[in-house]
Design a protein that fits this description.
The complex is a heterodimer of chains A (424) and B (205). Helix content of chain A is 36%, strand content 15%. Chain A is α/β, with parallel strands linked by helices and 424 residues long. In chain A, helix 1 packs across helix 7 and helix 4 packs antiparallel against helix 5. Chain A has a single domain, classed as Alpha/Beta hydrolase fold, catalytic domain (Rossmann fold). Chain A starts with a helix and ends with a helix. Chain A contains ten helices and twelve strands. Chain A has an eight-stranded mixed sheet, sandwiched between helices. A two-stranded antiparallel ribbon of chain A has the order 2-3. In chain A, strands 6-7 form a two-stranded parallel ribbon. Chain B has a single domain, classed as 3-Layer(aba) Sandwich (Rossmann fold). Helices cover 34% and strands 25% of the residues of chain B. Chain B is built from eight helices and eight strands. Chain B is globular and about 50 Å long. In chain B, 46% of the residues are buried. The chains are: A alpha/beta (424), B alpha/beta (205). The interface between A and B is medium-sized, with 27 and 24 residues.
């Protein structure tokens, strides 16, 4: 009975998918792909793509990694991408930490979607993260689904996908894994750790856990803890996934199913939080989708509806539902002050790290006061900190988009740091 | 790190000359970062800035300076005591809501404080008010009463009085006249009449 119902709704989503195909042409013409809602990613400013290479490293074979939840994990693998060349002193490495649904493919065509990498506008020759000058590393996070060990990978002990037997991970666990990678690469001190959103949380964790290994830190559109509202949004997404019968109690991979509807609803809800009312209004208003009047039904009458449905349907092609559960949980658990007796400043005592925080005026997911709270904590320990709020109506996603003042901030900060670090 | 000397405003140069190389400096109201840039590159100081205007902050960070958006009135309390060798407040005191509180905070977080401000006791100001009966508009106070950010103007003598009230030691007192000529203040009354700007190097007792 349940199976039949599931199959029936599976057909529904399939027939809807056909309609998506028609919409797809529209979106490909008028809208930017993937996360980059409003501005299509352009070729890098210099017009060339950075040299990049895909890598894989295995850790925890001899000594497993003790996670925050108390589980010892190992062996596990880390998939990472590098751009540019490590200099002789190994002093020009920038670690980029990706966001919740990001991955290690910063620039150049994505191997799954074929679209430009998520930070194509920032990483490349002549761009703020100049690959002629810096060695840029980005690793898929622990718990992810683009090659690093996560719930969809095979547990070597059982020969089956981890599924929900994968341990619950934290932002600090992700950073521990990245540190193993940086050790593995023979990099004593990262020139910079940079990232937006969840990536920014990792940056703060890096600066707090391994201050001596970081010269500069750039948390963008981030916070030192996940707010109640953000946990609430994540919970909506998770509930959408677990309510999908195809989720099968997390065991969908073994059962040959895929909770696409749940994951796509989770993405749709989350996507709204990445934008802003102004941006949605500017792009869609109340415009109707390929029709002159409303249909008095529940089809996607409005462009904004089809846009969201499209975002949901493409997301499920590249993302694993259980990974979504695990990674959102890691963000929810993040509270840097709590690790330090409730005093955020204690997370950064005597820090030698140079910080640059960036927020965006229309970001209501990680609003400016969250960044300002970190700035105040850093002031309290007299840390070297810059803080810039960028005027933008593009919401949280602004850090992925073409914001010239943001790019100028990153370039300026990195140049200043390079000068202090003695990088040519 | 060394770079050729780029001329800066005479009052900023005067401040720069007071700061020792390699010092830790906080510049409150750092504007476009002219002083900070000068100090960082010519005196190798560890320089930080606070600036109210976002445009100013973005300009500073884009040139590699460590500057945050912030307000002298509210944000100085976040800094620990003795965090800096010098805390600089150049041409900003008169625009703060609580000048006394700001000076007290400066002297707490810095070993020394440098404060410069337009002198409302300057003879041109007095003359303007005396002869025209209207709020003075002068070289160092170019805006009208209704659009000026300057809400707490004071004279050099007023400022010395504030320092006494706060039990602050004035290590150096200087004035800048209209022609950009600078000099140590020997006679307060004279400086209060002829100095267009006052500049003070302060420390805790």
């Amino acid at each position: 009975m349940i199976v039949a119902a599931a199959l029936k709704s599976k057909e529904n989503i399939d027939s809807r998918d056909c309609r998506y195909l028609a919409m797809l042409a529209f979106y490909n013409r008028f809208l930017a792909p993937g996360n980059t809602l409003m501005n299509p990613p352009q070729q890098s400013a210099a017009g060339t793509l950075p040299d990049s290479a895909s890598h894989h490293a295995v850790f925890g074979e001899d000594r497993p990694l003790r996670l925050d939840c108390g589980v010892d994990l190992g062996p596990f693998s880390v998939a990472y991408q590098t751009y540019g060349t490590l200099n002789r002193d190994r002093s020009n490495a920038i670690l980029v930490c990706h966001a919740l649904t990001g991955d290690q493919f910063l620039a150049g065509p994505h191997p799954v979607t074929g679209r430009p990498g998520w930070w194509n506008l920032m990483v490349g020759p002549g761009l703020p993260l100049d690959t002629n000058r810096y060695f840029v590393v980005c690793a898929n996070v622990l718990g992810g689904c683009m090659g690093t060990t996560g719930p969809k990978e095979i547990n070597p002990r059982t020969g089956a996908p981890y599924g929900l037997s994968f341990p619950v991970i934290t932002i600090a666990d992700m950073v521990r894994v990245q540190k193993l990678l940086i050790d593995h690469l023979g990099i004593d001190k990262l020139f910079c750790v940079i990232g937006g959103s969840m990536g920014g949380m990792q940056v703060l964790q890096w600066a707090s856990s391994f201050p001596e290994r970081v010269f500069a830190a750039v948390p963008i559109a981030a916070a030192a803890r996940h707010s109640a509202q953000n946990i609430a949004f994540h919970e909506v997404g998770r509930q959408a996934i677990v309510a999908d019968p195809d989720w099968c109690g997390g065991d969908y991979l073994r059962q040959g199913r895929k909770p696409s509807r749940g994951l796509s609803v989770a993405r749709m809800a989350a996507h709204i939080t990445y934008l802003s009312e102004a941006a949605l209004h500017r792009k869609f208003g109340r415009n109707l989708q390929d029709r002159k009047t409303v249909t008095y039904g529940f089809d996607a009458d409005f462009q904004v509806e089809s846009y969201l449905r499209y975002q949901g349907s493409t997301f499920v092609e590249r993302f694993d539902a259980n990974s979504y559960l695990y990674i959102t949980r890691a963000m929810d658990y993040f509270d840097l002050a709590a690790e330090h007796g409730g005093v955020l400043a204690s997370a950064f005592r005597d820090t030698p790290v140079r910080f640059c925080l960036v927020s965006f005026t229309s970001d209501w997911l990680f609003p400016t006061p969250e960044s300002r709270a970190v700035v105040h904590a850093l002031n309290a320990v007299a840390a070297n900190v810059s803080f810039v709020e960028i005027e933008s109506d593009k919401g949280h996603d602004a850090f992925l988009l073409d914001e010239p003042e943001f790019a100028a901030t990153l370039s300026g900060f990195l140049n200043g740091c390079a000068e202090h670090r003695g990088l040519s | 790190m060394k770079r050729d000397h780029v001329p800066i405003r005479v009052d900023l140069q005067l401040i720069a000359d007071m700061v020792e190389p390699n010092a830790r400096v906080l510049d409150i109201g750092c504007g476009d970062g002219a002083l900070l840039d000068h100090l960082v590159h010519l005196k190798q100081v560890d320089g930080r800035g606070i600036e109210l205007s976002q445009a100013g902050v973005n300009a500073c960070v884009s040139q590699g300076l460590s500057v945050i958006q912030g307000d002298a009135d509210t944000d100085l309390k976040n800094y620990p005591s003795n965090a800096f060798d010098y805390v600089v407040l150049s041409q900003t005191l008169q625009a703060t809501r609580d000048p006394k509180g700001v000076v007290a905070q400066m002297i707490r977080i810095g070993r020394r404080a440098i404060v410069s401000f337009p002198n409302f006791g300057h003879w041109q100001v007095r003359w303007h008010l005396l002869t025209q009966g209207r709020m003075p508009v002068t070289h160092s106070l170019p805006l009208k009463w209704y659009n000026t950010p300057n809400i707490h103007l004071c004279t050099i003598m007023d400022f010395v009085g504030l320092c006494e009230e706060l039990d602050i030691v004035v290590e150096r007192a200087m004035s800048i006249n209209g022609g950009g000529k600078t000099g140590e203040i020997h006679s307060l009354r004279r400086a209060n009449l002829f100095g267009e700007q006052g500049m003070f190097l302060l420390r805790r007792r």
